[in-house]
Amino acid sequence: MKDEITNKQRNYTLFVLVLVFTSSHVDRQIMGILGQPIKESLLISDTQLGLLTGIMFAVFYATLGMPMAMWADRHNRRNLISFSVFLWSLMTALCGAASNFMQLLLMRIGVGVGEAGSNPPSHSIIADLYPPEKRATAMAIFGTGINWGILIGFLVGGWINEWYGWRTAFVVVGLPGILLAILVRFTVTEPPRGYSEALTKVTKAPAFWDVARFLFRHAALRNIIIASALISFTGYASVIWIPIYLVRIHDLGTGETGSYLALIIGVGGAIGIYLGGRAADYLSSRLGQQWLPWLVGIVSLAGLPFLYLAFTATSASSALWAYALPAAMGTIYVAPAFALIQNLTPIEMRSVAAAINLFITNIIGLGIGPFSVGFFSDLFEPRFGPDSLRYALMTTLVVILWACWHYYRTGALLAAQHRQPTH
Description:
Blueprint: H1 7-42, H2 46-72, H3 77-95, H4 101-115, H5 119-129, H6 132-164, H7 166-174, H8 176-187, H9 208-217, H10 219-249, H11 254-287, H12 291-312, H13 316-329, H14 334-344, H15 350-384, H16 388-394, H17 398-419
Helix pairs in contact: 1-2, 1-3, 1-4, 1-5, 1-6, 1-7, 1-8, 1-10, 2-4, 2-15, 3-4, 3-5, 3-7, 3-8, 5-15, 6-7, 6-11, 6-14, 10-11, 10-14, 10-15, 10-17, 11-12, 11-13, 12-13, 12-16, 12-17, 15-16
């Protein structure tokens, strides 16, 4: 068969896409471990720090993801991913040259522009390579890039900052991505669309608004998108601000903080997201797709009291111990949500559907989440002093309860759909 894909090719493609996702999260999350040194060096407020780590990055990242996803549904996805990796890696390295807040903000926007072109086509490629019954596990393996990225960004960024300063840290983590862009362009093969479903012909990609209407008229898809956005609000806020909290309130160095969080979020989170994907595939194949969202809701509720203990801890060690469990489970939502959206969306809509999901998730989670913590920290500072950051972080916890209702609702809708007789 002309277009036959071997297991070796399939696994290699997934491996390279994990590297791409890892690179994007190194460059995105390094702001967390470098936040306090940048604040002190450039003399900026927590609100400005929230702009750098959150909303301004997210607006460009999420908005440009739409047209890039539409392009990916019509043209070569591998080439778009390669160009995107090159751009965000270059802009990350250039962050080290910023001499004021505005220059650094423009460079971070450049990182967001670059990262806009990698996720939707990556989801689409994975969906073409893996059938629905194996898709959550494949998406979970892909999703571990979040945790490997945090591990590298926090560990390397933290120690490079202590040895050479935050500017050098940006250069060290940025430049290797240029080599990765070359690797993607010349070693990854673009799979045929619909390959995993054994389709020989795929319908022409529809207009953007047709995809948007499909998603928001589909009750289960609408609820899983809302749930993912809300749960990522707390997730992104804590990942960005927990290292700043440990450095500022518990007096840890950036190297020590980065090492602890690399182990807790990086290794623990990667294990958590992989096991979450395997569990999601196991439960959904035996009990129905409703267990994809229900699993995430149960795990999210279990982690909520531990986050509260982490934010109110009186010592660094107790904060880290309390944070370990929610950090390990914090990205479990990624694989079930990604897989469910790909499963319920027609093939010709998949890149754009992924982009719409990522747009909403990133505006609310990556954008408003970290920004809100910075805003509330400045708002509470006159009354609580440095402890204002504790209370700002605690404002994010109520959002978890809201998200869990939508996870429950998604599962209930899928269960009801499963019970309906077919004619």
